[in-house]
Amino acid sequence: MIALYDTLTKRKAPLRPLVPGQVGIYLCGPTVYNSAHVGHARPEMTIDVLRRWLEASGLKATVVRNFTDVEDKIIKRAAELGEDPAALAARYAVEYVADMDSLDIKRPSIEPRVSETIPGIIDYIERLIAAGKAYASGGDVYFAVDSFPPYGQLSGQNVADLIAGARVDANEDKRSPADFALWKGAKAGEPSWPSPWGPGRPGWHIECSAMASQHLGPSFDIHGGGLDLVFPHHENEIAQSQALTGAGSFAQLWTHNGLIKVNGEKMAKSLGNFFLLGELVKRFDRETFRLFMLLTHYRSHINFELALGDDGKSVVGFTSLDDAEKRLDYFYTTLERLDQWAASAGVAGDDVAAPASDVLPEASDLDARMRAAMDDDLNTAQALADAGEGMKLANRLLDSGKGVAKDVRARTLARLRKDLRGVPCVLGLLTRPPRDFLDARRARLVARRGLDAAAIERRLADRDAARKSKDFKLSDDIRAELKALGVEVMDGPTGATWRVVD
Ligand SMILES: [Zn+2]
C-alpha cells in the first residue's frame, strides 16, 4: 500500500482511492508569461514520478494540470512586449509543453486553461455568493474568510493574525483584510469577460477550485504543488471548495514538493541565479536532470550547485548536474558490464532471475527494498541509494567471483541485472540500451574538452596494428599519449574501446 505525507493532517497516510483502482490528481500549473525554469520542473517531476509509480502499482491515474493564462503578470509582460496577452500566454504554453516533453515528463491527462473555463468559474462564484460565502463589492467579488471557520488549517495560519498583519488600503472594497478576490473588475485596456458583476476576470485561486471540481469532481484523491503555494493559494482553494461542498471534500491528500535553491540561496530572476530548462536540456542529457531531482526526496529542498568563476558570479560549471551525469554513467556502465557478462554466460532475456533464496543475501531483497521505499512517500532517494548498492555488488562480482560459489555468483548477477532495471525504469531512469547513453555522453565530453574523436579512433587503429605486429612499445606509447589527453583505453574481448576520463 502506498502512503503519502499529507500537509493538511501533517502525517503520512495510506492512499485509499475514492474510486477503487483510480486516482485523481490535481497539480497547480504555471502562469505562462515567460520561459520555464528549473523550478518549474520540480512539481512536474514529482507528479510524473507519483503517476508512474501508481500506474506501475496497477492504478489508473488521471492528472489534471492547469495553465494560468489570464493573470496580472501576463498582462504586464504583454504590455511590455506590445503583444496581445492571449497570444503571449498561448505561445509560452506551447513552449512549456515542449520543455516538459524534453524532460520525459508525461503529459497530463487534461490541461485546462483559465481562458477556456470562464463560464465554469463564474458559475462557481455565483454559487459561493448564493451560499453566503462571498460578496460582490465595487465590481469585484471577494471570498468572506470569516464565513469559513476552518480557514488556516493547511498552513497553520490564524485569521486574527492575518488581519492584524494586513495593511488596510483606504480604497479596499473588502469587508475584512483577510478576504481575497474571486473576481476582479476590469481596468481600462485589460482583457475582460462579461459577468453578473460587470466586465472582469477571475482571481488566481478560484480557477483551481473550479477546474479541479470540473474535471475530477468535488472530491478527489491528491492535490500537488510546491511548498510555496501552501499559503495563500492552497489555503484559499480549500476554503472556496469546502465552503461549497463541505468538510472532507476536495483533495483527500495534499502533497507538497520542496523548492530548488541555487548555491543555497533562493532562486529568483532578480538574483540572476535563474536557469531556463531549454538551455540546460541542451547541455545535459534529459535523464541526468531526472536523476539529479530524484536523488533528493521530493519534500526536501534541492540545492542546485553551480561552480562560479573568480568574480563569484559567472557560472563556470553545473556541479550538481555534472555529478548526476557521472552517477548515471556509473549506472549505465554497470548495466553494460552485466549485459556483456550475460551474453558471455549465455544468459538471455531477464526471465532467468533466480528466486531470492538462491542468490547472495545482499541481492535477495533489493527489489523489495526499492519498492518499499517508493511506497513509503515516494522515497526515490532511498530507492536509488538501494540501486547504487546493487550496482556496487554487481561490479564486485563482475571484477572477481572470489569467495562466492560459481552458481550463486551467476544467479546473483542474473537477478541484479533484472532488478536494477526494475524500479529505476519505472522512475524513468536507465530505460535505454547502455551504449546509447554512454556514446552520447562520450560525445558530449569530447565536445566539452575540445577533443577530436576521429583522431582518437585513428590512434586506436594504429595501436591495434602495433599490437598485431607485436610492437608493444608503440602500443604502450599510444595508450600513454591518449591518457595524457584524458582518454582511457580499455581492452576487451571484442577489441579496444575508449572513454573520456571524468
Ligand atoms: Zn492552484
Can you walk through the features of this model?
This protein has 502 residues and is an alpha/beta fold. It has 3 domains: 3-258, HUPs (Rossmann fold); 322-426, Four Helix Bundle (Hemerythrin (Met), subunit A) (Up-down Bundle); 451-500. It has helices at 38-56, 72-81, 85-102, 118-130, 159-165, 204-216, 230-245, 277-283, 286-294, 319-345, 361-364, 366-375, 380-399, 406-419, 423-426, 434-449, 453-468, 472-484; strands at 3-6, 11-14, 22-27, 60-65, 134-137, 140-143, 180-185, 200-202, 219-226, 250-257, 260-262, 265-266, 302-304, 307-308, 315-317, 487-492, 495-500. The strands form 6 sheets. Strands 4-3-9-10 form a 4-stranded parallel beta sheet, sandwiched between helices. The protein has a 4-stranded antiparallel beta sheet with strand order 5-6-7-8. A 3-stranded mixed beta sheet has the order 12-11-13. Zinc ion (ZN) binds next to helix 7.
Topology:
Blueprint: E1 3-6, E2 11-14, E3 22-27, H1 38-56, E4 60-65, H2 72-81, H3 85-102, H4 118-130, E5 134-137, E6 140-143, H5 159-165, E7 180-185, E8 200-202, H6 204-216, E9 219-226, H7 230-245, E10 250-257, E11 260-262, E12 265-266, H8 277-283, H9 286-294, E13 302-304, E14 307-308, E15 315-317, H10 319-345, H11 361-364, H12 366-375, H13 380-399, H14 406-419, H15 423-426, H16 434-449, H17 453-468, H18 472-484, E16 487-492, E17 495-500
Parallel strand pairs: 3-4, 3-9, 9-10, 11-13
Antiparallel strand pairs: 1-2, 5-6, 6-7, 7-8, 11-12, 14-15, 16-17
Helix pairs in contact: 2-3, 4-6, 6-7, 9-10, 10-13, 10-14, 10-16, 12-13, 13-14, 17-18
The structure holds zinc ion.
Zinc ion binds at residues 28, 208, 233, 237.
